[in-house]
Predict the 3D structure of the following.
Amino acid sequence: MIEKPQFTRDDVEILRREELYKRFFRVEKVFLRHKLFNGGWGNEIGRELFLRGEAVGVVLYDPAHDLIGLVEQFRVGAMDEPHGPWCYEVVAGMLEEGETPEDVARRELIEEADVTPYTMEYICNYLSSPGGSDEKLHLYCGLCDLSQAGGIYGLPEEGEDIRMHVFAADDVFAELFNGAFNNAAALICLQWLQLNRPRLQAENLSAVD
């Protein structure tokens, strides 16, 4: 059994914050001190923090036809990647005030893929880069019929140009680690799906019977 970390939020003292940048995203410099493993408190340190908040990602799976739905879009942070700056990703979006992660998942599935899942399975949540960002992602698998899915979606007023792809599951898993899926949310979702694929297919057959 893995024990919980020794310290909690109560073992950190925030001394002050400085706002460095504020537009669509925010960046702060946080001055703090925290308890040490050897005892006592450490000295004051300053850490820049990229404030991005919570987000949701959804991989689409059709267990009846063994198909996976992923979206493709331009990403400025991937400009120098060997495969170029268009990335295969899970459908994703940011939480807005008053929304639950599943609310966001269903909203983004309509906007980015024009798909309504018949059920959603929660995969996990994770911190994308806790050394310098507070971003937290909630990941889901949306079970749906992908036999007629695909097309170009997104909100043009937000600069979105998103292509929805439907792939055979075997083709996706054969290419899982060759660099085509070069972002954490996609890799985590697809590895989860690879492990749970037999169960999801069996449950689909049971439902049909």
Observations:
- The longest helix spans residues 184-208.
- The two ends are 40 Å apart (CA to CA).
- The mean pLDDT is 94.
- Helices lie at 101-113, 169-174, 184-208.
